[in-house]
Automatic annotation (TrEMBL):
It comes from Chryseobacterium pennae. Residues 12-499 form the Aldehyde dehydrogenase domain. Residues 460-484 are annotated as: Disordered. InterPro entries: Ald_DH/histidinol_DH (IPR016161), Ald_DH_C (IPR016163), Ald_DH_N (IPR016162), Aldehyde_DH_dom (IPR015590), HotDog_dom_sf (IPR029069), MaoC-like_dom (IPR002539), PaaN-DH (IPR011966). GO terms for molecular function: oxidoreductase activity, acting on the aldehyde or oxo group of donors, NAD or NADP as acceptor. This is Phenylacetic acid degradation bifunctional protein PaaZ. Residues 539-638 form the MaoC-like domain. It comes from the Bacteria. Keywords: Oxidoreductase.
Length: 831
């Protein structure tokens, strides 16, 4: 029988005890054994704090985001084997998709957030700079840095993959190493995914460790700076939180616990309305998805008192139609609980609920390709609490399975009151088309809920459902739900980051934050900032423009072009009692005129205006005033690009407009997309000739079998094909992969050295030489390069077939040749 290994201090380690046997929830057969006996938890924690912290915290947020994406892609390619294991936990294909690919999706989401919104530094500047002195020589701001410690993540059994990855997505992105401790039940699935994460080679040493079984005394070794993330019962969570090692030290503790979530049917949602049907479907799904083993499942069904019978009948019929059984069967819509132990626990809670409320539905389903004796199957159970303000059992006891309770209400006030009797929930939902009812109920129940989900006919098609936590929104809830906050977009990182106030002069803050601060030293040079590639731009790079005197004609013309005829710009007779002495220039004209002064008209690395973050106007500008602009590189933001976009970054520029009296009249922050410097050669004939001057018959190849002349003739043939001489007769790349291959022309990744050209002889032989010597081959090659440049100037819309990339236009052929030439010139050590 397979004994699951643990991954600690960089090694796969097997426990020394008998361990906990793990069973197939469908057949009852033993699957594996989890065992943590004999592990040195103190060493594991120390390894994370030292090796793991050093490696992760030194990475930038941008690079950590790229790391998450690479891991997710690696796992996605291997997903089939995870599904095969997930079925053994009793999960259907849909259940498994939520767990497995939902987990991968969380990594992808956080990777995207990092690339769009986080800096390419190992720290994060939080909020605006505060001016805390009269003359602006003393400023303050905040930075966020990874807390120096290790995060111990204790997960529940219901989501073996998502439960791990949703916590790792924030801790790893924040730069904090983690020790993952899944529940033993289903841990064979967690173990398989974790093995592949390590095998990918993407994660730095010490970033993650895995304790696959009982936690032992691991929390005894928690110390200042460490953190604990717990998902499970509130009782267990409170015990862990009160441990001396946790309570007595500066240990961050996040708990996501019990939750008696509710769903409220609106007073307007009568039978026959779309909302009534949506409500029945949503409740049925939440009772049966993962066999009700979800912390977000609907446990309390709050319904207008006159609709109780209608809802009970409709829901019973829907549950009758839900096929239960072996998850491998296509007929099955609900699988089993994760094991017999969990079955007995749910049954115990069902019996407690029976003591005070009536069981009105207990469908005796025939199982599909399974039996009740071997597996942990339970039919859905629906209770009725006819007096929910008197009978409290429904608000106190959570049966963590396909179990829910109906309860009546009279009005919005009562509906919200019942929702809050759960004493803190992860999610509550309202199904209604009455906006007033929705608003009133939401406001009143919000204090006791982490998330409120509203469903109606307007959003049903795109809704993700009551029970689906999303990476961009907070997952957690107050009170009984634990008071925790996981995910929530970038706010989910704050749990793992230390916030520190920084005070100093503008130059000091610029040096620390890598963001230009007003009043800091500017760096002027002869080269226009817009002529610098992203890598060349430095924070503080500045430009002082010439002056421009504003005229009455400017104001009139801008009014006519913009259609902005606001009286202050056009009617001098209406200015009495205003702040203006005479007709004033439009604020947006001042900003436009500023752009006219600082923009470089010459083509350069700046690709486009990316946006305007902030803009303030401080003093009016009148005809006769002269404005001058100071443009300063304020901040650089790396960004990922996909598809056919030029690799680029965002540069934020501080624009300061002053008048002839040196008074600041306007301050704005504009954003530009700035191209990154290409690692590939320029296609100019002069540049290529210069490179080729170093190539001789005796120049050795650093890889491959080509001679210098064969290489030149190979490149020459590629040029001729791009001119249609001859037209390539086919593309060897399958149609379904062609777009991806064409997109790759736009990135800055080099061509692979081991790529076998499909159009060359399969025996590895090379075409016969066509020129008498290397020099004549060089001459023909440069002549054809000149023809290529002229041809696409005269025929800019021309397209010709490439053997690998398909039909290419002018831009794509240029990109292909740049990569291709660079690849072979590097092959012979020429560049």
């Amino acid at each position: 029988m397979q004994k699951l290994k643990n991954y600690i201090y960089g090694e796969w380690v097997e426990g020394t005890g008998n361990g906990v046997p793990l069973y197939n929830a469908v057949t009852g057969e033993q699957v594996a054994v989890s065992d943590t006996e004999g592990l040195n938890f103190e060493q594991a924690l120390d390894y994370g704090r030292t090796v793991g912290y050093k490696n992760l915290s030194s990475m930038t947020f941008y690079d950590r985001g790229e790391m998450l994406k690479k891991v997710a892609l690696y796992l996605l390619e291997r997903k089939k084997k995870y599904y095969d294991l997930s079925y053994k936990t009793g999960a259907t294909h849909v259940d498994s998709w939520v767990d497995i690919e939902g987990g991968f999706g969380t990594f992808f989401t956080y990777s995207g957030l990092a690339k769009r919104m986080l800096p390419n530094t190992s720290f994060w500047v939080d909020g605006d700079t505060q001016k805390i002195s009269a003359n602006g020589t003393f400023l303050g701001t905040h930075i966020l840095t990874p807390s120096e410690g290790v995060s111990v993540q204790i997960n529940a059994y219901n989501f073996p993959v998502w439960g791990m990855l949703e916590k790792l997505s924030t801790s790893l992105l924040a730069g904090v190493p983690s020790i993952v401790k899944p529940s033993p039940f289903g841990s064979y699935l967690t173990n398989a995914v974790f093995q592949d994460m390590i095998e990918s080679g993407v994660l730095p040493e010490g970033a993650v460790q895995l304790v696959c079984g009982e936690p032992g005394n691991i929390l005894d070794y928690i110390q200042d700076g460490d953190s604990v993330l717990f998902t499970g019962s509130a009782t267990t969570g409170r015990k862990l939180k009160s441990l001396p090692s946790v309570a007595g030290n500066a240990v961050r503790f996040n708990m996501e616990a019990d939750s008696l979530n509710c769903s409220i049917l609106g007073l307007d949602a009568k039978p026959g309305t779309p909302e009534f049907d949506l409500f029945i479907k949503e409740v049925r799904n939440e009772m049966t998805t993962k066999a009700g083993q979800k912390c977000t499942a609907i446990r309390r069904i709050i319904v207008p008192e006159h609709l109780i019978g209608d809802v009970q009948n409709a829901l019973s019929k829907a549950l009758d139609q839900t096929k239960i059984g072996n998850p491998l069967s296509r007929e099955t819509k609900m699988g089993s609980l994760v094991g017999r132990q969990q079955y007995e626990e749910v049954l115990r809670k069902v019996n407690i609920l029976k003591s005070e409320t009536e069981l009105v539905y207990d469908g005796k389903h025939e199982l599909v390709d399974a039996n009740y004796d071997n597996g942990a199957f339970m039919s859905p159970k629906l209770f009725l609490n006819d007096k929910p303000f008197e009978k409290n059992i429904s608000h106190d006891v959570e049966a963590f399975g396909p179990v829910s309770t109906l309860m009546p209400y009279k009005d919005a006030e009562e509906a919200a009151a019942l929702a809050k009797r759960g004493k803190g929930s992860l999610v509550g939902s309202i199904v209604s088309h009455d906006e007033n009812f929705i608003a009133e109920t939401s406001w009143k129940m919000a204090s006791q809920h982490g998330r409120i989900f509203v469903l109606n006919r307007d959003n049903a098609k795109e809704s993700t459902g009551h029970g689906s936590p999303l990476p961009t929104l907070m997952h957690g809830g107050p009170g009984r739900a634990g008071g925790g906050e996981e995910m929530g977009g970038l706010s989910g990182l704050h749990f793992f980051l230390q916030k520190t106030a920084i005070q100093g002069s503008p130059d000091v803050l610029k040096a620390i934050t890598k963001i230009y601060q007003q009043g800091a030293e500017k760096k002027f040079s002869d080269k226009h900032p817009f002529q610098k590639y992203f890598e060349e731009v430095e924070v503080g790079d500045s430009l002082e423009t010439a002056g421009r005197t504003v005229t009455d004609a400017d104001i009139v013309n801008f009014s006519n072009v913009s259609w902005d005829h606001f009286y202050a710009h056009t009617d001098a007779t209406s200015l009495t009692g205003t702040i203006f002495d005479k007709t004033v220039a439009h604020g947006y004209f001042i900003l436009s005129a500023a752009a006219g002064l600082f923009v470089s008209g010459k083509k350069g690395p700046v690709i486009a205006n990316y946006g305007l973050e902030e803009c303030s106007f401080f003093k009016p500008v009148y005809a006769g005033d002269t404005i001058t602009v100071y443009l300063t590189a304020k901040e650089k933001v790396n960004r990922g690009v996909k598809g056919r976009n030029i690799p680029s970054g965002v540069v934020k520029w501080l624009v300061e407009v002053v008048n002839q009296r040196d008074e600041v009249v306007c301050v704005a922050t504009i954003l530009t997309l700035v191209a990154k410097q290409s690692p590939f050669i320029d296609l100019t004939v002069k540049n290529v000739q210069k490179i080729l001057s170093g190539l001789t018959e005796s120049t050795p190849a650093l890889w491959g079998k080509m001679s210098p002349q064969q290489m030149i003739e190979h490149l020459d043939q590629a040029l001729l094909v791009s001119l249609g001489e001859p037209e390539a007769d086919k593309c060897f790349t399958p149609e379904e992969h062609l777009e991806k291959w064409q997109d790759s022309l736009y990135n800055h990744r080099a061509m692979p050295k081991d790529f076998t050209a499909p159009f060359l002889p399969q025996d590895g032989s090379l075409p016969e030489l066509t020129h008498k010597n290397l020099e004549s081959a060089k001459q023909a090659f440069t002549d054809n390069l000149k023809r290529f440049v002229v041809y696409y100037k005269e025929n800019p819309q021309a397209e010709h077939m490439n053997f690998v990339f398909g039909k290419l236009n002018k831009e794509m052929w240029e990109l292909m040749h740049k990569k291709h030439f660079t690849h072979h010139f590097e092959q012979f050590g020429l560049i």
